[in-house]
What we know:
The complex is a heterodimer.
Chain A: E1 2-8, E2 11-20, H1 22-38, E3 42-53, H2 55-70, E4 74-78, H3 81-89, E5 97-99, H4 102-108
Parallel strand pairs in A: 2-3, 3-4, 4-5
Antiparallel strand pairs in A: 1-2
Helix pairs in contact in A: 1-2
Chain B: E1 10-17, H1 23-38, H2 41-62, E2 70-78, E3 81-88, H3 111-118, E4 121-128, E5 147-156
Antiparallel strand pairs in B: 1-2, 2-3, 3-5, 4-5
Helix pairs in contact in B: 1-2, 2-3
Amino acid sequence: MILQHRSHNDIDVVQLSGRFAMADCGEINLSIQDLINQGHGKLLIDMEKVTFIDSSGCAVLVAAYKSLQLKAGRLVLVTSPSVQSLIELTRLHTIFEIFPNQDAALEAM
Amino acid sequence: MVTNFQIPPVMLTLQIDSSIPCISPLGEAIHSLCLYATDSTECASQMQLAVIEAINNIVLHAYHNRKGNPITVKWNNENRQLRIEITDFGDSMTAPPIPELAPWDAENGRGWWIINACVDEYDYKVVFCDPQNAGPETGKPVTSPEKANILTLIKHY
């Protein structure tokens, strides 16, 4: 799993690629929580290049959403087909804001 | 003319250690095997996800995240049915949890919901290898090496 971070104005953009599974979730969660703590309350997680996600990955997304809620912030996701499939299976699509690509997500933020 | 060549019955056994870095390579192997058998990426992805969720549970809850314990996966393809049997020797469950959807803000507890959605059938049993020396009757602890926990996942295609 690769995590890349960049800033776009006041938005933190995290791009994940590869397998978003339990082996990497601890470190990814720490990185994302650090960004939330230091950021401006706007986080875009782009998972367009994520090839696999399990419930551990979902838990990282839920934790990010909850942390941003406490800051009155906003989490926006971009999903790949496998990520979208699991998010829908676990009904989290009713909670998360999801966009088809990074440009659309940035424009909405 | 269309000829459908059936893949003959195949059984393969894989074994990994109970450490988290071993789980993803196993998942990739399961995906490849299921894709080979079914020619369906959807079926292969669902079986991969179900197996990974099951093994995540074994590593965390049966073996308490301790390395050095075996997890055996028997993959079987016969009569358009994938059957995956996962065996561990860690702590047992009294029964598989009811696959209920966790509250949206829960950070765990989605595994059985996912497994249930990805396969057609599953079965969990604890097998006592030597009923003379192990089991509830003798008061042996559930971590006794004389017993095995077997989770069977079945998907038709």
